[in-house]
Amino acid sequence: MLNATVARVLIDSKKKAAYGVEVYTNGRAMTIGARQEVIPSGGAVASPQLLLLSGVEPKDDLRAVGVPVVHDLPGVGRNLHNHVAFFVNFRINDTSTTPLNWATAMEYLLFRDGLMSGTGISEVNVQVRQPRRRQPRPAVLLWWCYWPTTPRPARWVKSRAVAWATAGEPST
C-alpha cells in the first residue's frame, strides 16, 4: 500500500497478541487485519515508535501522553542503534597500478571515458527502481567505494538514542 502511514499495531490486551494495524491513507483511517502475525519493520526509529504508539512502552511514559497501556515493557525505545551503512574491509597483495599514460589521456580527451573519467573514489553506484513504484527516488541504492573507511577501534564512533512518545499520533 503506497502513501500510507501505520498509526499503531492493534493488540488484544487480554491475549497480548497483535491482530492487525491501523493505517492512515488519503486522510482516512483504515484497519487491516493480520492472518498470522504483525511484524514491525520500520528500522531503528520507526519500529519502536510504532510500538510506543501501540501501547507497548514503559507505562509512565505512555500515561504521560495519553496512550493506553497495553503492555509495560521498559526496554522499548531505549538503546537504539541505527546502522545506515556497513563496511567490508579486506587486504590485497597486488601492488601494481595502471599507469596514467598518453593513451589514457587521449581516451579521456577524445571520448570522455577511461581511467581519467572517474574520481577513483566511488566508481560503482547502482540504483534500483521497482517497475510499479511511482516515486522518482530509487527503492535501493548500492554504493561501492575503495578507500579505507573504518577508523582504528579506539576512534570508532558509537552512539545510542532513546525514543519516546510525545503524543498518541504517528506524525509527532
UniProtKB/TrEMBL annotation:
It comes from the Eukaryota. Residues 2-84 form the Glucose-methanol-choline oxidoreductase N-terminal domain. GO terms for molecular function: flavin adenine dinucleotide binding; oxidoreductase activity, acting on CH-OH group of donors. SUPFAM superfamilies: FAD/NAD(P)-binding domain (SSF51905). Pfam families: GMC_oxred_N (PF00732). Signal peptide: none annotated. Belongs to the GMC oxidoreductase family. This is Glucose-methanol-choline oxidoreductase N-terminal domain-containing protein. The lineage of its organism: Eukaryota, Metazoa, Ecdysozoa, Arthropoda, Hexapoda.
